[in-house]
Design goal:
- The complex is a heterotrimer of chains A (90), B (149) and C (116).
- Chain A is mostly helical.
- In chain A, helix 3 (51-59) crosses helix 4 (61-81).
- Chain A is built from five helices and no strands.
- Chain B is built from four helices and no strands.
- Chain C is mainly alpha-helical.
- Chain C has one domain: Helix Hairpins.
- The longest helix of chain C is centred in the C-terminal third of the chain and has 31 residues, at 73-103.
- Chain C is elongated and about 65 Å long.
- Classes of the chains: A mainly alpha (90), B mainly alpha (149), C mainly alpha (116).
- Chains in contact: A-B, A-C, B-C.
- At the A-C interface, helix 1, helix 2, helix 3 and helix 4 of A face helix 1 and helix 3 of C.
Chain lengths: 90, 149, 116
């Protein structure tokens, strides 16, 4: 009974997901919005020939700072979970 | 296929001779490849996060090949915190020169060479070192206390 | 109805099945990672321009004025998302290790410490 209900819920969620994914756009016809400005003026304003590096570190540098913080917090969390076993029970 | 795991006198499982010699050969090649990817991050596809992951996986290869290796934990955490402070310091250069935080204050240089794009090159080097030491520290924490792998 | 979007739906369905129906804790964590990877791939796939090339500039020949380039903005944002997925997986696996050392089993129907 529970398994049949779980499979019914799974089918419902996957059908909603399928309707959303297949109607976003046709594959290959993308309307570039603000990315066109990054493509045209990126080399003059930031200077790197890799345009993705340009976006990650110059136009959206705060997001990279936040991501470095998230990775640091995850490492601290893993160390905190294993602290008691590795350094004795004090 | 040599899959024998010989037990030493202390009862530990030692890796076989093939794993040890291949790990010894592959470690400098993989490490150099990772350093190349994050140093040239502003010229070719790649960058800090991808290069840092390759460096961490080469160090984990050494951990799995030699079962009782022990890199001191204070060294990896000191490198990781130093790299985070260098990232903030490179961002504060813009404040001292009269602009915003993380502003490209140093001159841009000639596009396509290694010393171009202001502070973007050094920032990727710092991020590569940081991510590499962090993933090594995560793996080091998950091992058992008597260091059998 | 393209092969890329069909792969996204299939991988997401496998991940959702693993999270809802399986009982082993490691399989649930693998399903969570699969769902995250499928959505990240979908974000990159919507940015594709037909006949486009990677957004790397080589100054005389390959510039945005001479060749058609794909959208670079989703690629930069998915880079952050991949690292966040890694952090979630690392913390979830650490919690699974600590649970195994406490209870001796990885079956979620037998780990009921909060209910009693």
């Amino acid at each position: 009974m529970k398994r049949a209900l779980s499979f019914l819920l799974l089918g419902l969620l996957i059908s909603i997901f399928m309707v959303t994914v297949l109607n976003v756009n046709t594959f290959g016809e993308h309307d570039i919005g603000v990315g066109a400005h990054y493509l045209d003026h990126g080399l003059q304003e930031a200077g790197a020939t890799n345009l993705v590096t340009n976006i990650v570190l110059d136009y959206r540098g705060y997001d990279t700072l936040g991501e470095v913080t998230v990775l640091f917090t995850a490492t601290t969390g893993v160390a905190a979970l294993f602290w008691r076993e590795r350094h004795g029970k004090k | 296929m040599a899959k024998s795991k010989s037990k030493t006198a202390s009862g530990e499982n030692e890796p076989s001779i093939i794993v040890k010699s291949v790990a010894r050969i592959m470690f400098p090649l993989a490490f150099t490849y990772g350093v190349y990817i994050f140093v040239h991050g502003h010229l070719t596809p790649g960058g800090g996060f991808q290069g840092g992951t390759i460096i961490a996986s080469s160090i984990i290869l050494i951990y799995l090949g030699f079962g009782s290796l022990n890199i001191p934990e204070s060294l990896t955490t000191a490198l990781e915190s130093l790299a985070a402070l260098c990232f903030i310091g490179l961002g504060c250069i813009g404040i001292f020169k009269g602009g915003n935080f993380l502003w490209n204050a140093v001159g841009l240089g000639e596009a396509g060479t290694l010393l171009s794009a202001g502070i973007l090159g050094p920032i990727y080097v710092v991020i590569g070192v940081k991510v590499g030491t962090e993933l090594t520290a995560i793996f080091n924490n998950m091992r058992r206390k008597d260091h059998e792998y | 109805m393209n092969i890329d979007y069909l792969v996204v739906i299939i991988v997401f369905a496998i991940g959702l099945y693993a999270v809802l129906i399986k009982k082993n804790l490691i399989k649930i964590i693998i399903g969570l990672s699969l769902m995250e990877y499928s959505v990240q791939y979908f974000l990159i796939a919507t940015g594709y321009v037909a006949g486009g090339s990677p957004p790397i500039v080589d100054v005389p020949l390959i510039t945005p004025n001479t060749v058609v380039m794909v959208d670079p903005l989703p690629q930069a944002l998915v880079l952050t998302s991949i690292v966040i997925g890694l952090s979630v997986t690392a913390l979830a696996l650490s919690i699974a290790i600590v649970l195994y050392r406490q209870y001796g089993t990885l079956d979620i129907t037998e780990i009921r410490g909060l209910k009693e």
